[in-house]
Amino acid sequence: MAFLYLHNYIYLLQKKIFHLLMHKFTLTLFTVFSCLLLNGQILFEDEAAIRGITNHTGALPNGSGASFVDYDGDGWDDITLPSGDNVPLRFYKNIGGFFVAETLISPQITYRTRSVTWIDYDNDGDKDLFVASDTDGNRLFRHNSDGSFENVTEDVGLFEDNVFTYGISWGDVNNDGCLDLYMSNRIENSPITNYLFKNNCDGTFSDVTQSSGLTNEAALSFCSGFFDFNNDGLQDLYVANDKFKPNFLYKNIGNGIFTDVSSSSGTNVVMDAMCVTIEDFDSDGDMDIYLTNSASNVSESTVGNIFYRNNGDETFTDIASSSGTFLECLAWGSVFFDAENDRDLDLYVNCEYSNTPDGVIQSTFYENQSNNTFTEPNNIGFLNNVQRSYGSAIGDANNDGKQDVVVFNNFDTPPFLWMNKTTTLNNYLNIDLEGLVSNKEGIGSSIEISINNQKQYRHVMSGESYLGQSSLRESFGIGNATTIDYVKVKWLSGIEDVVYNVNANTTLKIIEGNTLYVNNSFLNIELNVYVNELSKTLNIASNSKMDNIEVFNIAGKKINNYQVDSMTFQINQNSLVKGIYLLKIDFKEGNTIVRKIVIQ
Questions:
Q1: pTM
Q2: Which is deepest, 350, 363, 480, 524, by most CB within 10 Å?
Q3: 15 pLDDT exceeds 70?
Q4: Which letter does DSSP use for residue 520 in this model?
């Protein structure tokens, strides 16, 4: 009996130990699996063909760029590709994550083009098209109300003469709410220079290159980027020059006037500079610059890519080697984005070829380690990435919250569409801006988000990388957070919007001055704002009772505040000098509407 009791006891003990071990093993597996999902198993696959992008874009020296911008405003990022000789511009409309080729302009452009940018230059709410060419001159197509596109290049004060343009950048150099245009022209020993055209806010442009303080000499420029390198609220400009001239960094000192700080900032490198890629990779609030370069057998002076970290004191330090992102190949495009939504920006660099004995092309992905260093992970896809690649841009082709990459391939080869197949439980936040006092698309705005006092920053640009234009919808990876403490937008007008307690995995639309997007079409509120020239009053009338009216000037300063308890209100026009103002109107039922007004 004692033996049987002992045998049963041992059996039960073994069973208990077995269950404990299995439970621990299961917990360990679950923990490992969860960590893998949270950290993200990065994976990219080329799905250009199966998603409808099958046509090549011809063959041309130095390749071209790409645009990944939603050009029809339906919430899906479309793709536009420049053209080679006798090959038309390629417009691909995104329909639910798949692309359909369409013809938007007639007659079609079939000559060599370098870059395409979609912008709302006239602030009328739809995207216009600028096409840059180094053989047949540039074209600006206005998007008309009937959906057609009209060549208005010469009508608006630009010119169609060939000035050998590669890259186009848009920014608001004097914070007047209208987008200005910078042309990077690749030519030497010529009176043709790069050009800055000021938007006159009436649908026309004026050449202000001479009066703006920019260098007035030919410099073999590929591209440029407007950004605020010293956080003073003004758009500065960095220009990438190929071979013989140093790159330029122009500091905006106000009213659209620039001074050259290339030398004092430490960014006046002489190299075969191909691209200007700008983001805040280390989340310290200052924008950093990544520059691609040629391989050592053809490069000038400087070898390999350069990674300028912003020191926060108007100087930069090259950290390419120490960060692990030094790459020696004939590199062209590069893009920062958060591949696995883990709260830091990774880096993708595409090449034409490398300077290695076997000539292997080394388009490279660098994973941010959140300590100012990057690594090159293995087994992350990018299979058959062996084309001669040039421009690249990021967007979200299937609206799954993960950033995808489109890459321009040369020599009659279709582009890559690297779909982000990363397996992760990490969350994201998308932000879509609409300016009222600032330019319509919020270009030049700075966005800050905070989660448990950990900050991330983005800067909205149009024209970056190598002849590229990434989606104008900004994306943040937020890890396992389910709520963002706040989202702050600093507009070029000086107005700041702050939205608190934002849910994850959403697209947040912020209208300038509105704090949080309110879709007026659902409010059933009618609002009429007009100036009575006879009585010299600004009249405000609504079908809903108003509670409070605040008046801001273009710099974001509050001018007046009025307590209102009626459906009509008058403001003495003499209290407002000539200029642009923002009215923030609060209604009794709790809704808010913002209106932009112009006092002549």
A1: 0.83
A2: 350
A3: no
A4: G
pLDDT tens profile 366-423: 999 999 999 999 999 999 888 889 999 999 999 999 999 999 999 899 999 999 999 9
- pLDDT for residue 540 is more than 60: yes
For 485, what's the count of Cα atoms within 13 Å in the CB-facing half-sphere?
9
Query: Tokens 């709790």 appear where?
Result: 590
Closest CA to 367 of 37, 44, 42, 35: 42
Q: What is the model's pLDDT at position 25?
A: 46
- Sign of the CA dihedral running 403, 404, 405, 406: negative
Mean pLDDT for the stretch of residues 293-320: 87
The whole-angstrom separation of Cα 183 and Cα 151 is 18
Tell me how far apart the alpha carbons of residues 38 and 125 are, in angstroms, rounded to a whole number: 39
- Give the pLDDT mean for 529-541: 84
| Residue among 238, 235, 240 nearest 222 (CA) | 240
Burial bucket for residue 400 (CB in 10 Å: 0-12, 13-18, 19+): middle
Q: What is the 3-state secondary structure (H, E, C) of 484-515?
A: EEEEEEECCCCCEEEEEEEECCEEEEEECCCC
Six-digit token pair at 397? 């082709």
Residue 519 neighbours by CB distance under 10 Å: 8
The C-alpha atoms of residue 378 and residue 397 are separated, in whole angstroms, by 24
Bridge partners, residue 346, by sequence: 337
What six digits make up the tokens of 158? 């630009």
Are the C-beta atoms of 392 and 66 separated by less than 8 Å? Answer: yes
Q: What is the mean pLDDT of the chain?
A: 89
Residues β-bridged to residue 583:
551, 595
The answer on pLDDT for 10 being more than 60 is no
> In the structure encoding, which two tokens stand for residue 230, read together?
């010293």
269 φ/ψ angles, rounded to the nearest 5 degrees: -75, 145
- Is residue 65 a contact partner of residue 467, using CB atoms and an 8 Å limit? yes
The Cα–Cα gap between 240 and 248 comes to: 7
Q: Are 585 and 549 within 8 A, CB to CB?
A: yes
User: Confidence class of residue 517 from pLDDT cuts 50, 70 and 90?
Assistant: very low
| Cα 266 from Cα 309, distance rounded (Å) | 11
User: Residue 5 — pLDDT band, cuts 50, 70, 90?
Assistant: very low
Residue 512: is it exposed, middle or buried by C-beta count within 10 angstroms (0-12/13-18/19+)?
buried
Task: Please state, in angstroms and rounded to a whole number, the distance separating the CA atoms of residues 292 and 425.
Answer: 33
For residue 268, the tally of other CB atoms under 10 A from its CB is 16
